[in-house]
């Protein structure tokens, strides 16, 4: 098939590369500077395998880049929309990027016979888009095909998903979508567009809720000197619950969970429903960083002028994405308290933020620090020489925001003088 994808960000570029790998001819359309970078084989996205697959697909002539949507989609079998749908100040989804794409199609008066919406959009958006395209005399069908990939394992997730969902209304659209994904071995659910739109939001809301649930129970563990790791191991062993997304820590971040939760809350409000589970999920998440900082400030007394070393900037390991990362909340709070931040991340580079000094190694983070906080569970942080790390510190307070240090390592560390180890959902060790 010939596919045009508008939006070559995390989702669009991964889809483009993977669909080319499946044998389709894909043209990915984006803004001039993005396309220029891609044509120079310069990826701003750090994803395992993505670069190699991109280079191969391009050399085979299966992956092209363009800036003109209408030219690039002429003669295509389908147009996939993968532009951003961020949240507006009022919590509603900002659909201006999708609307801009639609405006280009209206102006051209033409469009491929199938539009596949990959962007996460509020329930009813695809219906409206199809109606307005058809009202403008453009013969096309809009299908919703949510994306469930996780950043950090995006290519693997795209090629080996748990399920593929097609929200569409005609057999022709379904047949085209099946052809598009031919070669991927996964169960396919075909349903109406509105249900498909809600599947995406409900899935993300549920995952966020699991994380907030674990974090809520971790507060109880702290009050009663229990161990959240053991509690969640026991809880997650129940097959009705499952072990995933039950790790307590400093909360979720990233471009999707918070925004999709907000959007679903807004959709609920629009029909007079308050969705209290989701409100609690968001609130618990927002409390994580301030709660950890309260513990630190209780030890420090006066925080002004203290130096906090931070390990991990991206919102999770294996990605360079800092959108909605807990790091951003932490930096804001540090700024308020007058705390200097010294941060290191294995892949996030050249971050320019007031009050933040970015350094080139974990050891530079701990050198002279009055505390070090582990914000992202990069595997290389587990392997660090922690004895040396604490020796380099000015004040030996270690906040393990992701519970990554082993009990054996903690036992070794506290033989050092004045070490205080503060985990999440477990007793403080000193
Ligand atoms: P992104 O910001 O990384 O990418 C969007 C791209 O669209 C950007 O490169 C931007 O330049 C381009 N774009 C926007 N308007 C354009 C226009 N008019 N012409 C040309 N290019 C244009 O966003 P993303 O993370 O890839 O997310 C895209 C959608 O997928 C969102 O709706 C998101 O909710 C959803 N989603 C994201 C993830 C994820 O992990 N990032 C997972 C599942 C679903």
UniProtKB/TrEMBL annotation:
<comment type="similarity">
    <text>Belongs to the UDP-glucose/GDP-mannose dehydrogenase family.</text>
</comment>
<dbReference type="InterPro" id="IPR014026">
    <property type="entry name" value="UDP-Glc/GDP-Man_DH_dimer"/>
</dbReference>
<protein>
    <recommendedName>
        <fullName>UDP-glucose 6-dehydrogenase</fullName>
        <ecNumber>1.1.1.22</ecNumber>
    </recommendedName>
</protein>
<dbReference type="InterPro" id="IPR036220">
    <property type="entry name" value="UDP-Glc/GDP-Man_DH_C_sf"/>
</dbReference>
<dbReference type="Pfam" id="PF03720">
    <property type="entry name" value="UDPG_MGDP_dh_C"/>
</dbReference>
<dbReference type="InterPro" id="IPR028357">
    <property type="entry name" value="UDPglc_DH_bac"/>
</dbReference>
<dbReference type="InterPro" id="IPR001732">
    <property type="entry name" value="UDP-Glc/GDP-Man_DH_N"/>
</dbReference>
<dbReference type="GO" id="GO:0003979">
    <property type="term" value="F:UDP-glucose 6-dehydrogenase activity"/>
</dbReference>
<dbReference type="Pfam" id="PF00984">
    <property type="entry name" value="UDPG_MGDP_dh"/>
</dbReference>
<dbReference type="InterPro" id="IPR008927">
    <property type="entry name" value="6-PGluconate_DH-like_C_sf"/>
</dbReference>
<dbReference type="Pfam" id="PF03721">
    <property type="entry name" value="UDPG_MGDP_dh_N"/>
</dbReference>
<dbReference type="InterPro" id="IPR014027">
    <property type="entry name" value="UDP-Glc/GDP-Man_DH_C"/>
</dbReference>
<keyword id="KW-0520">NAD</keyword>
<dbReference type="InterPro" id="IPR036291">
    <property type="entry name" value="NAD(P)-bd_dom_sf"/>
</dbReference>
<keyword id="KW-0560">Oxidoreductase</keyword>
<dbReference type="InterPro" id="IPR017476">
    <property type="entry name" value="UDP-Glc/GDP-Man"/>
</dbReference>
<feature type="domain" description="UDP-glucose/GDP-mannose dehydrogenase C-terminal">
    <location>
        <begin position="309"/>
        <end position="407"/>
    </location>
</feature>
<comment type="pathway">
    <text>Nucleotide-sugar biosynthesis; UDP-alpha-D-glucuronate biosynthesis; UDP-alpha-D-glucuronate from UDP-alpha-D-glucose: step 1/1.</text>
</comment>
């Amino acid at each position: 098939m010939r596919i045009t994808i508008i939006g070559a960000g995390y989702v669009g570029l991964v889809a483009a590369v993977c669909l080319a790998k499946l044998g389709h001819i894909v043209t990915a359309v984006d803004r001039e500077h993005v396309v220029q970078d891609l044509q120079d084989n310069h990826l701003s996205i750090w994803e395992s395998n993505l670069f190699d697959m991109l280079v191969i697909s391009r050399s085979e002539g299966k992956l092209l880049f363009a800036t003109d949507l209408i030219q690039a989609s002429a003669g295509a079998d389908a147009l996939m929309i993968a532009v951003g749908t961020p949240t507006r100040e009022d919590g509603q989804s900002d659909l201006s990027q999708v609307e801009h794409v639609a405006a280009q199609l209206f102006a051209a008066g033409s469009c491929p016979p199938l539009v596949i919406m990959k962007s996460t959009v509020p329930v009813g958006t695809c219906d409206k888009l199809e109606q307005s395209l058809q009202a403008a005399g453009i013969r096309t069908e809009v299908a919703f095909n949510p994306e469930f990939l996780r950043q950090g394992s995006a290519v693997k997730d795209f090629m080996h998903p748990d399920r593929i969902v097609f929200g569409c209304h005609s057999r022709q659209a379904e047949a085209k979508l099946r052809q598009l994904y031919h070669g991927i071995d996964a169960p396919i659910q075909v349903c109406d567009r509105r249900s498909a739109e809600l599947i995406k939001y409900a899935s993300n809301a549920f995952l966020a809720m699991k994380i907030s649930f674990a974090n809520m129970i971790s507060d109880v563990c702290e009050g009663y000197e229990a161990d959240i790791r053991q509690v969640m191991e026991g809880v997650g062993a129940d097959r009705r619950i499952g072990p995933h997304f039950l790790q307590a820590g400093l909360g979720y971040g990233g471009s999707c969970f918070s925004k999709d939760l907000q959007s679903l809350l807004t959709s609920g409000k629009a029909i007079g429903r308050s969705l209290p589970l989701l409100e609690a999920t968001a609130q618990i998440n927002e409390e994580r960083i301030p709660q950890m900082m309260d513990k630190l400030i209780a030890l420090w007394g006066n925080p002004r002028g203290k130096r906090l070393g931070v390990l991990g900037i991206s919102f999770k390991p294996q990605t360079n994405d800092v959108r909605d990362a807990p790091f951003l909340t932490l930096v804001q709070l540090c700024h308020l308290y007058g705390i200097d931040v010294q941060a290191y991340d294995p892949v996030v580079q050249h971050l320019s933020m007031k009050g933040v000094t970015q350094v080139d190694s974990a050891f530079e983070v701990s050198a002279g620090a009055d505390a070090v906080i582990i914000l992202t569970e990069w595997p290389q942080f587990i392997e660090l020489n922690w004895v040396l790390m604490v020796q380099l510190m000015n004040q030996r307070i270690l906040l393990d925001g992701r519970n990554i240090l082993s009990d054996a390592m903690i036992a070794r560390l506290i033989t050092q003088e004045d070490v205080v180890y503060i985990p999440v959902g477990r007793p403080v060790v000193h």
